[in-house]
Amino acid sequence: MRTITGTDRSQTLLLPAAIEDYVGPDNTVRFIDAFVDHLDLAELGFGRARPEWTGRPGYHPGDLLKLYIYGYLNRIRSSRRLEAETHRNLEVIWLLRQLRPDFKTIADFRRQNRKAFKQVFREFVVLCRDLDLYGRELIAVDGTRIKAVNSKDRNFTKASLDKLIAQSDERLEKYLSQLDTGDGDEQGAPGASQTDNLEEKIANIRARRDQLRGYQAELKASGEDQISLTDPDARAMARMTKVGVGYNIQIAVDAKHSLIAEQHVTNQVLDYGHLTETAKAAKEILKAETPDIVADRGYFQVEDIEACVKAGMTPYVPKPDRGPAKRDGLFPKEAFTFDAENDRYKCPGGKFLRLRGTGELREGVKRRTYTGYNVCPGCALRPQCTKSKFRQLTRYGDEAELERMAKRVAARPELQDIRRQTVEHPFGTIKQWMNQGAFLMRRLENVRAEFSLTALAYNLRRAITLIGIPGLIAALRG
Known about the structure:
Blueprint: H1 28-38, H2 41-44, H3 61-73, H4 79-88, H5 90-95, H6 103-112, H7 116-130, E1 138-147, E2 155-157, H8 158-184, H9 192-222, E3 226-228, E4 235-236, E5 245-254, E6 259-266, H10 275-286, E7 292-294, H11 302-310, E8 314-316, H12 324-327, E9 337-339, E10 344-346, E11 352-362, E12 365-371, H13 382-385, E13 392-396, H14 399-411, H15 415-433, H16 444-477
Parallel strand pairs: 1-7, 7-8
Antiparallel strand pairs: 1-5, 2-3, 4-5, 5-6, 9-10, 10-11, 11-12, 12-13
Helix pairs in contact: 1-3, 1-16, 3-16, 4-6, 7-16, 8-9, 10-11
């Protein structure tokens, strides 16, 4: 049977004389080239953007930035792999005009300009905003965890160090006991090899215990709650995240086309306290007037929600189901009605809990305590209300704002479904299609640079899908 065959490798071919002929008008590299040339790299913070006339010439930061944007867009993040692409990939050869920087030059550029990459990301957000790709009405805020270059075995907390040291002491005591027993047994003393083996194990355990105690002292001196050996900034994440040691990625995503409006990386385990910081930055760069901000229960914090409202945003954050009353099946706080005029709570039994004291929960958050010490003892509903002699409620900060938000959340239950659809699009794309479930670099600032390139590549891919390369290039020229 006949088959399709290729040409003879020694055959002389009349290939196009210019590299330009190999790159079509709709090729992504044409926009990358135009976009980077459009930027003021010196203003964005890139080093050597305005080189001196003296000294040995170096690579222009624009060329290396183009290489990184192309790499992250095409799932190539390693500096060694990017170097290989400069030798064999016609698109990269066209983009860099046949420049071939080595992997160390490529890696050093990313490390030395780590703070400037976020500004490049924001420049592209502004371009997409001007193209009306952001709705600017509903912004979803959420976080995800991405693995760091640090295994779980090289991360320690105070509790884990205490446990490991206790286990070492237990094993050491066991081996010392075996050694003493062997030495004291005149009838069947162990051979020299067995004794040497025990002594070797004892020496190893002592060395390991001293090492763990060193980590313990270092952890205490740092004031942190955990220590990582490979990447000192990485932290052990919560168990339900399925990420052992990593970083917490916070993003604000516009609901119109699931484009990322703002992003930042933190090593805090929980999302708690990041709502206003993320949403406000997105509001400012999008120039949104009064956007709705939707987030999950992990962002519910009194002062954060109050700050969100003061910044001109309307938050939709459901209240988490927590507290002893909820856990014990008693009347929840929502079953009590607050009487603002008389500053008291009305209970399900029709009685009133009055103000007992004031204070601060934490800096900037006032706390007012209401008790029913004079009405609860004789109430028939007390077994359904409290296990104590009387019920006590706490009112935090401007809780009236939380009550208004609870009504908004109840009136628009579909927003949580929209939030999930909006934020899972970038998270799923980044982790699965872009294959970026783990960082390559160490330390928080370097990781932030990495994710800025990742978020830029995601937004660029979305924009290409929405309006195409010619439309993006035309926007730059316009």
